[in-house]
Amino acid sequence: PPEAKIDQRKLIDNKVDTDKGSYEGNRAAQNAPVTLYTSKDCKEFCDNARALLSKRKIPFAEKSVVNKDDIDALMKLTGTKEAQVPVLVVGSKPIAGFETGAWNSALDTAGYPKQ
Questions:
Q1: Distance (Å, rounded) from C-alpha 24 to C-alpha 43?
Q2: How far apart are CA 87 and CA 25, in angstroms?
Q3: What is the pTM (predicted TM-score) of this model?
Q4: Average pLDDT over the chain, rounded to whole?
Q5: Nearest partner of 34 among 60, 69, 64, judged by Cα
Q6: Angle value at C-alpha 16, between 12 and 20, nearest 5 degrees
Q7: Is 34 helix (H, G, I), strand (E, B) or coil?
Q8: pLDDT at 17
Q9: What one-character DSSP code corresponds to residue 96?
Q10: How do the residues of the chain divide into helix, strand and coil, expressed in percent and rounded to 5?
């Protein structure tokens, strides 16, 4: 009989990457992205704010308030006549000032996992 032609197939691993976060967390990040407004003069409260978001593994963008235009935009965003940082924006809801309970509540409401 003629020589048989044999195809050699390469197999690859089929695994699920679990380091990308939970389904709930990914969905929350898509529906209600988180932005943290900080300034260079905001040390303790801004560090605490970052720590809270990191502990909960919340993906967030950080925007630094550095000039008059940034301050005006932040006051317009928060609806206040005074610029205060840190400001957390979850989706379209801004929360001025760092308060653990209010921030956790906003993140919970948006569907972010507690841990």
A1: 31
A2: 21
A3: 0.77
A4: 86
A5: 60
A6: 130
A7: strand
A8: 47
A9: E
A10: 35, 15, 50
